[in-house]
Amino acid sequence: MTMLFDPGALDSLSEDAISDILHDWAHFCSLTTSLLSHSQDGPHSHLEPTVASLCNRGLAFLLQDHFLLSLEEAFKRSAVKKFWQQFDSYFDASAIEKAKFHVQESWPEEILSKSLEQLCSEKRSQENCLLLLIETLKSYEQSSKGERDTDHPQLMSRYQLMVSSVLLTTLPWDFPDVLRIYFKKKLEELNSMMADGDNDELEINTDNFPNDADYSHMDTSMYECNGLVMQIGKVVSDLRSLGFTSMAEDAYSSAIFLLLKSKVNKLAGDDYRVPVLWSLKKWIRAVPLQFLHDLLGYLGDSIEGEKDSPSVKSPLASQPSSVPGIGIPSEALVRWQLRLEYFAYETLQDLRIGKLFEIIVDYPDSSPAIEDLKRCLEYTGQHSKLVDSFISSLKYRLLTAGASTNDILHQYVSTIKALRTIDPAGVFLEAVGEPIRDYLRGRKDTIKCIVTMLTDGTGGNSGSSGNAGDSLLEELNRDAENQDGAEFEEDGGTDEKQAWLNAERWEPDPVEADPLKGSRNRRKIDILELMVGIIGSKDQLVNEYRVMLAEKLLNKSDYDIDSEIRTLELLKIHFGESSMQKCEIMLNDLIDSKRTNANIKATLGKSVATGPEQGEIDVSLDILDATIISSNFWPPIQEEELNIPSSVDRLLSDYGKRFHEIKAPRKLMWKKNLGTVKLELQFEDRSMQFTVSPVHAAIIMQFQEKPSWNSKSLAAEIGMPADALNRRIAFWISKGVLTESAGTGPDDPIFTIVDSMSDFNKNGLASEGCQLMEEESERSVASVEEQLIKEMTVFEKFILGLLTNYGTATLDKIHNTLKMFCTSEPTYDKSLHQLQSFLSDLISEEKLEMRDGLYSLKK
């Protein structure tokens, strides 16, 4: 005993004692070598006295260390080296050659299983040798009455640690890849076996399954898969025994998550019309969770929870406490279920966020995908990822010069609707919508497109569930009524019990929420209010609508204004009756015009029929419908000089006289360039019908007198500039009615009527109606921009004087100065955006310049 801790004690030993010790040690080393060489004859019987002799001299720990060292050297030489050599062909291969290994059907299953079995066999053999030494030491301890010198469980632990250390220190870098490939192939095979059964039904008709649905039909294939699970379990068990527990778990975990990710991509894909979350959860329980249950059972781990202990339920979804085919899951299995479900939610969430732009384009057909995304975000809480990703997609795919304003607005409306489903409080809509609103404010046609989308029968409703032909305004009105009704149900008429229930359901705003805006302000998301917010004020929208309404009314060929009245009533709900008063008067003018027109036709028609000048009237009164407007309430009308045919002029004069008689002292002032004219042109071999402006009608009717005109003569006859005539007459040339040829000068071409298609066959539209689409420059009413420029021109001198005095000024300073000093007529009542637009026009005219946000006179 003292010799082990005091080497100086050897000095007290005789030479014979030292000789005996050396003899016994040499004999023990020989026995160890013989024992490890698997020779079973002799060593066992001679080992016990030799060990006893050495232990009596206090060398028990020394002989244990030597035995373990001998085991380590033998294990390295006979087992480990051979084990790694089995994989040398893969370890030494290039990346391309390794890819060829991956596609081999039996690789690495055969080589891995066989090599692990051989290595574990060698390990078990050495363990038997170690157990023999342990039994010998136990026998010595029982025969002796002395202190106990050995810790036998620790000796076996030291051996296990030695095995793991040897393997890990010689581990090639690519061995974990071999394990991952093995488990990946095995799990794909298992999934394929399961998919051959009822599992295919998981991909369809999943939106109506209740939470307590019967899953028993999903268990039919697992018994057939037991052999495959046992193969996998054998490999995992061998790896565990060799100290590769963590590596094995990482490998089959990686394979399970890879298989789950592949399943998510397969179920979700690019089809956004089918919900996939419920199918995914059913598949998780049917395949990976069932596999883990069987694997843990094979490995001897706890696979069932205590019968009397409450089972742990997943916070990710409502689920039954007992899993089909498994029963009450163990704690380990529940942890696996939590990991798998969370990974599934996160993977599906990332997939949907990556395709959110396309999903919103397809909304509301893509509503199932939006609902799935909403549930995923509720469980993962990664809303900021949605905001950042979607804003990035908007900047690169939508907010570009190539995208039309109308497309951007439609996408914005769809975004509002979709994000309202995900986040009813509107917190994330505030962040996502801000870049769109900022970009739209910089486009000149934004207001016009918003008004068109709100009032047009096809705007904003291409994919909605509303009635065909409804405007976005009608859709928003229905939506507002639904929200009001829901809010009334929530807030109005609740008793004390219901109030407590509402309080229990209350949730705080997300951390991303703007603290300056309370939850009550976010509860109702008004799409129309958001659209008005882009413009800046409702007055600008109303003015644009008034111009658009005037243009539409002046170009009507009848008095049908039912849709306009309906739109006006809806706008009055949102903007108030006072704001829409002028528009209401414009519609009343059409109603009064219809009644007045009918009275004049009834009286004037009788007098003309009996009058002495009946023969001089070439145009019947029946074809004339007049729109009589109250000019003070209409936007400024575009005026243009025009000489119309005498027969039409006499008809207008008679109509005006009769109106004066009925409505005295009011008189009509004809705007001869406004309105529409329906024409039928008859040629030798064809007949063509058109609906055109009075100017186009006046041009073509001049060719009744003679078939050919030069530009200047025709312009003088009609009473309009030659350049305007050349622009307007291009319409008739494009329709194949007229041809253009060189005249006496470069600015005086000759226009000739085409009597026969054999002479000119440019555009055959015989007997088909053609509608003229007016150019922007041929509007009947001055646009809002033109009105703004006209109104702001009054303040131009004031702005130039201000900059002369101050040198430079910011936009805010100019705006505030105008508001402060321009209080008398005309009063300055423009918005900051309107002023900025006017200053931009002055910059384009080189009257001003701007640097670093400061305006100054152009030098």
UniProtKB/TrEMBL annotation:
PROSITE patterns: CULLIN_2. Pfam families: ANAPC2, Cullin_AB, TPR_ANAPC2. Keywords: Cell cycle, Cell division, Mitosis, Ubl conjugation pathway. One of its GO terms (cellular component) is anaphase-promoting complex. The keyword Cell cycle applies. The keyword Translocase does not apply. GO terms for biological process: cell division; metaphase/anaphase transition of mitotic cell cycle; protein K11-linked ubiquitination; ubiquitin-dependent protein catabolic process. Residues 530-733 form the Cullin family profile domain. InterPro entries: ANAPC2, ANAPC2_C, Cullin-like_AB, Cullin_homology, Cullin_homology_sf, TPR_ANAPC2, WH-like_DNA-bd_sf, WH_DNA-bd_sf. One of its GO terms (molecular function) is ubiquitin protein ligase binding. SMART domains: APC2 (SM01013), CULLIN (SM00182). PANTHER family: ANAPHASE-PROMOTING COMPLEX SUBUNIT 2. Belongs to the cullin family. This is Anaphase-promoting complex subunit 2. It comes from Rhynchospora breviuscula.
